[in-house]
Write a structure and sequence with these properties.
Helix 26 packs antiparallel against helix 27 and helix 27 packs antiparallel against helix 29 (696-703). It is built from 32 helices and 31 strands. Helix content is 41%, strand content 19%.
């Protein structure tokens, strides 16, 4: 029996399981990968051909043979259970990898070596001819019985292996089976076409032409081939038929082909209009609606119903299963310790929200931001600037919303129209539905009841947050903070931690609004108007606008202070800008660090008071700067101390888990950093974002980890709309085109989200016997698994989106308040579980480099499970002036 690892369906033959993969799983999105059909193999592959190649190489089909079987015997360890030449040389190569001396196994050759590459090169240069024979004793013949099975490799298609057996099976299809199969084929074809349109942005005209050619190939051009095939089959079975009957039969086969019927004349997928109607009937399409702002001037915007989208999203079992914290009891269970902040549910704002805390509820996180869909210059600048309003489901566990398909569209408005007509008119349909969600809820068919919900928070940059919240949008005025009543002049002399600034609360904000209305002031203590979101019963402006660390830190404080400090270091001639850029260009970044490597710094960075770059690049620059130029700067240099302390603050802020100790440490580091900055740069005023940063310790206690509410992934969503705009090259009613394309793409994702993405993904494994493994590896394995005969080993594996490779560094435990490091030597897959064969390393913290110096402390190997790690994030090590260093990406709790 064969079982599908994803949907758990059972099949009697391997060929049936593979057909199931090809027909039912072929076009699943969200990074779907095909699993190996063998339960003992954890490999998964992104393409169908890669799966077939793996099965052909590693799991050849068993066939019954009645001839002699050749067995190979290892001349080193006398192991004689090697049935193929390929297995024999893999076994020999394993000896070489263990540095054992091996003599050439071919006749009349005395070559010896203990180096794998040398032996492999010798074999291909001297013994590539198939006439070469093995030495005596290497091979032995064994007579097979009639019923014994032999694994042989075959170059034919997998499905052809069982064709004869399947022809003998008495399996008949009734009319219902035939209709179901035809409907399934039509649905799969529609899924492919929808993917071409929505994901690959192929035009309708191109798809129409493709289908016309395909219809011609299947319906007309293949008719002679079908006639010849039918004639040959009838001839082989000694059947006599009229040629006209054969032609009619062949024509009927071509015309009744399910694909041909779907794409032929008047077929359900034959034209763009018919395809769109088919998508609406069979896929979860929530169409955007156009709302008129000004009919005379042809002003409108696109809105996608949140209630309809929620129904479609929660109708998917995979997504609903992930939202296990819809139940209030589960939320409370997550708060295992009041001193640990892992998510929004650990913050004080969750416990203060009556709906989210006391009832089973839906939590929504909104995001609003402006973006350009093209890059015009001159008078056309900002002509096509668009405001996008997105939302995500806050009930999903942390990390589940990082996929762009989990970010849903609510509205698209031209920025100029938003400024002209205001939030109240533009967001009216959204607010009406949010009020319904709070008071009546949305019906979830899988639960059989309606579930209420509300907005958890609105993620936005400072300008958008102030604009939406009704605060003053001028950051050069007196009141620049939406968290407290600080005056801009006071933030230069007074810290937030001193308690001198009154925090904004719901009652204080209500008083400000009342005074504003009574005295008709343009603004009062930073408040200029009532927020449009105040219509919601369970959402409050003072508790629903979290800070964004992307704009505050990585696009604010970090590039600003980098420019100031690098300018000082260059003037003191520790290095030049050219040498710094050369160091950036020549540094050997590894793995994911290579993807986000910093760009060279512009010549005018001092005048701009910013090093430029996006958030990823600035994060990478502040992290690797000690490794790039740290050896050229004195440890006591004040400007260098500012940069290294800023690096510590960044590590603390991006940490996904916080405790009271880490929050207190962050508060101390921010205060210390402020003092040092003002001492080194007395003539440079603190930016408003420095003041926002001082609120972070208190805000973490209220919102939970701020990295869970940053705008990094939301901004990545803009790329889809920019790509569509470049593709369609038409800006007439561009909002409709963008929204419609997006909704069909989301329908495709929801349709294909029937299977959850597997946590463990491996593309290549080697199954070896423990007899040929190094003694150190065997001893490590036997500490947990004493009776292992074979083991699956791999050099690369992906677990929950994190890729692990041999040579990477992990953190396992702590000693004396410092993390303990281990190096991945090999990875083992046992019962679909990932284990690491590791070597322990000694780590000393080098303060000047803000990194850990690593040395091998123990050559003994140890088997470590993934859940035993202190931190699951894999790290890369770097050689700096002969020292092996590793730099962490976030604060590590030990």
């Amino acid at each position: 029996m064969w079982r599908c690892k994803d949907c758990k369906r059972v099949f009697s033959r391997r060929s049936e399981l593979l057909k199931h993969y090809k027909l039912d799983h072929r076009h699943y999105g969200r990074g779907y990968s095909y699993p190996c059909s063998y339960l003992s193999c954890a490999c998964r592959f992104k393409t169908w051909n890669a799966l077939l190649s793996h099965l052909s190489r590693n799991h050849p089909v068993k066939q019954t043979v009645t001839k002699d079987l050749t067995r190979f015997k290892c001349p080193i360890c006398d192991f004689n259970q090697l049935s193929t030449e390929r297995d024999f040389f893999q076994h020999i190569f394993q000896h070489l990898k263990n540095k054992e001396t091996v003599t050439c196994v071919f006749q009349d050759c005395v070559y010896q070596t203990n180096i794998y590459e040398n032996y492999k090169s010798h074999k291909y240069r001297k013994h590539s001819d198939i006439s070469n024979t093995f030495k005596t004793g290497i091979t032995e013949k064994k007579q097979l019985d009639c019923g014994e099975e032999l694994c042989v490799s075959s170059g034919t298609d997998i499905f052809d292996q069982d064709s004869t057996a399947q022809a003998n099976q008495d399996h008949t299809f009734n009319e219902t089976d035939s209709e179901n199969l035809q409907r399934d084929i039509e649905l799969k074809l529609a899924s492919v076409l929808l993917k071409l349109e929505s994901s690959f942005l192929v035009s309708n005209a191109a798809i129409d032409e493709l289908l016309q050619e395909l219809n011609y190939l299947i319906g007309s051009l293949s008719l002679p081939v079908t006639c010849r095939t039918v004639t040959q089959i009838l001839h082989d079975h000694l059947c006599q038929f009229d040629q006209s009957v054969i032609e009619k039969l062949a024509r009927a086969l071509c015309e009744t082909n399910p694909v041909n019927k779907a794409i032929g004349d008047k077929g359900s997928l034959s034209s763009a209009w018919r395809r769109k109607q088919f998508y609406k009937r069979h896929f979860k399409v929530v169409e955007p609606e156009e709302y008129i702002l000004d009919k005379k001037n042809n002003k409108s915007f696109q809105y996608v119903s949140i209630l309809k989208s929620l129904q479609q999203v929660l109708d998917c079992e995979v997504i609903l299963d992930q939202t296990d914290n819809l139940n209030c009891v589960n939320k409370l269970l997550q708060r295992s310790s009041v001193h640990t902040y892992r998510s929004f549910y650990d913050g004080s704002f969750f416990s203060e929200n009556e709906l989210l805390c006391k009832e089973e509820s839906i939590s929504l996180i909104l995001y609003i931001d402006d973006f350009e869909i093209c890059n015009p210059l001159g008078t056309s600048k900002r002509k096509h600037k668009i405001c996008g309003l997105y939302w995500i489901l806050g009930n999903l566990p942390q990390g589940c919303n990082s996929n762009l398909s989990s970010i849903y569209l609510a509205a698209l408005i031209k920025t100029n129209d938003l400024k002209c007509y205001g939030y109240e008119k533009v967001l009216e349909p959204l607010l009406n539905e949010l009020v319904i969600l709070e008071q009546e809820g949305v019906f979830v068919s899988k639960l059989g009841r309606a579930v209420k919900g509300t907005v958890q928070c609105v993620v936005a940059d400072n300008l958008a947050a102030h604009s939406l919240g009704g605060f003053v949008e001028n950051f050069t005025g007196s009141y620049i903070c939406r968290f407290c009543l600080a005056v801009k002049t006071d933030i230069q002399t007074t810290e937030v931690r001193s308690g001198a600034f009154t925090l904004r609360t719901k009652s204080i904000h209500a008083d400000h609004l009342k005074i504003l209305q009574e005295r008709e002031f343009p603004s009062y203590q930073g408040v200029k108007s009532t927020s449009i979101l105040s219509h919601l019963l369970y959402f409050d402006i003072t508790t629903g606008l979290p800070p964004d660390i992307v704009h505050d830190l990585f696009e604010g404080v970090v590039p600003f202070e980098l420019a100031l400090c690098l300018g000082v270091l260059i003037k003191k001639k520790y290095f030049t800008l050219v040498s710094l850029n050369d160091a950036i260009a020549s540094f050997n970044f590894k793995g994911t660090d290579k993807t986000n490597r910093p760009h060279p710094i512009a010549l005018n960075f001092e005048a701009k008071k910013s090093v430029g770059g996006n958030a990823h690049e600035n994060w990478s620059l502040i992290r690797f700067l000690p490794l790039l130029i740290g050896h050229r700067v004195q440890h006591e240099e004040p400007a260098w101390q500012i940069l290294t302390d800023l690096r510590d603050i960044v590590d603390l802020v991006v940490c996904p888990i916080h405790t009271e100790d880490s929050i207190a440490y962050l508060d101390f580091k921010i205060s210390e950093h402020r003092t040092q900055f003002q001492e080194v740069f007395p003539n440079c005023d603190l930016k408003p974002k420095h003041h926002f940063l001082e609120h972070y310790p208190h805000l973490i206690r209220q919102f939970g980890p701020l990295v869970a509410l940053w705008s990094m992934r939301f901004e990545a969503k803009h790329s889809f709309f920019k790509r569509v705009a470049r593709n369609i090259k038409c800006f007439k009613n561009v909002l409709c085109s963008l929204a419609e394309r997006h909704q069909y793409q989301m329908a495709h994702h929801l349709h294909l989200s029937g299977f959850p993405k597997p946590l463990l993904e491996v593309t290549n494994v080697s199954t070896v016997t423990t007899d040929v493994l190094d003694k150190g590896i065997v001893n490590a394995l036997k500490q947990k698994f004493s009776n292992l005969a074979t083991v699956c080993m791999t050099k690369s594996a992906t677990f929950n989106g994190l890729k692990y490779r041999c040579g990477m560094i992990l953190i396992h435990g702590s000693l004396g308040g410092l993390p303990e490091f281990i190096e991945i030597i090999q990875m083992v897959i046992l019962a679909n579980q990932l284990f690491f064969l590791v070597r322990k390393l000694e780590g000393w913290y080098v303060e000047h480099y803000r990194s850990y110096e690593l040395k091998t402390s123990d050559k003994e190997l140890k088997l470590v499970e993934l859940q035993d790690l202190t931190d699951v994030y894999p790290l890369e090590d770097y050689r700096i002036r002969g020292i092996r260093l590793v730099t962490v990406k976030r604060y590590i709790h030990v």
